[in-house]
Amino acid sequence: QSALTQPPSASGSPGQAVTISCxxxxxxxxxxxxxxxxxxxxxxxxxxxxxxxxxxxxxxxARFSGSKSGNTASLTVSGLQPxxxxxxxxxxxxxxNHFAVVFGTGTTVTVL
Amino acid sequence: xxxxxxxxxxxxxGSLRLSCADSGLGFGSFVFDWVRQGPDMGxxxxxxxxxxxxxxSYAESVQGRFSISRDNSQKLVFLQMNSLRFEDTGLYFCAxxxxxxxxxxxxxxxxxxxxxxxxx
Lengths: 112, 120
Hints:
Chain A has no helices and 9 strands. By secondary structure, chain A is an all-beta fold. In chain A, strands 1, 3, 4, 7, 8 and 9 form a 6-stranded mixed beta sheet that branches. A 3-stranded antiparallel beta sheet of chain A has the order 2-6-5, with no helix packed on it. Chain B contains no helices and 11 strands. The chains are: A mainly beta, B mainly beta.
């Protein structure tokens, strides 16, 4: 099963919002509301920031929000801060995948 | 909470054993995966093990060469990597499948990763 498609990069100025898309198919993103998002910094453990499309784990600021329409999920980071500069990956349940999940290709967010 | 170790530089055909130590609670209730970040920065699951260790899953690219195991008494997960190939190079993360995610479809805890380089 192919990876979900994300834009390689996205950017915004401090205080602005940036939205990252995660495009899949009717066999993964479009099949359920089980999409999660992860924030990765080099040398640090990845962090879960959104699960089940729009839910935030404890401790994740409300500036991070998720949504889904059809076969595409999205992550929006509002009120961009310098610390938001990181790589972001989506992950979707995929019933036909060996591990039942498939990752996105990843997006590097730059805060200008 | 998760700490990986065992990554190294190894020649093609060589072996490595990665370890993942969990310092948190409830280890025996969780499914664990090894997730590889390759040189292209993509993430892929390479192996997964059920909470009781009875069910293992492998990516096709590592089937027959890698073996995942766990020791619930010591709160450890292992990845035995044999017959290593150039394409096995990457940063290997240990990741825990969240109980609160339906269909175990997300990971709530990750380690920092341990690097594996296959080079002649």
